[in-house]
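Before relying on records like the one below, remember that each one covers exactly one chain. Contacts with other chains, cofactors or solvent are not represented anywhere in the record.
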Amino acid sequence: MLGLKLATDPRWVNIVESNIEEILTDHAWCEQKAASNAISLVTYNSELEELVTEMLIIAKEELDHLQLVHNLIKSKGLTLGRERKDHYVNELFKFMKKDGSRRDALCDRLLFSAMIEARSCERFKVLSENIKDPELATFYRDLMISEAGHYTTFLGFARKYADNIDVDKRWAAWIEFETSIITNYGKNETIHG
């Protein structure tokens, strides 16, 4: 469904389980960044009413997810650590086209966002199916469904607002690029790491 070429090795969950506080802290900050991304899309595209409406919904959902993760951290007697850099997302960001029209830039930003949501969804699926903690398994299954919805929303808007871009061709390029970098990840107790 997501079009990703490389699946996460389920053994990654063993790394995650060795430091639940770290994965939850990283996850919390991923949700904060996702909300900020949706707000940025609103800020730079305020004239696109349908996009603004949907991005505000996504921003709220991502903040709700941040609250859920924070509540989970507290309920487990853990502490929300400081913000972490997301090297995977930073590498994806470098692939975004910086030239072309404003609409071209919007289209690529939406594809960038769809890619992050796709990988997050895939990682949440792996967690939901392999983590030993039943509470976390259910938690990640529920979030997987939400991330899948965000992925399709971003991809749909990329198709809607593309002027001079063959979205399917550019999405295929995004998938190829993501495949080339994801092999460097899956070794740390972070959502994308």
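The chain has a mean pLDDT of 94.
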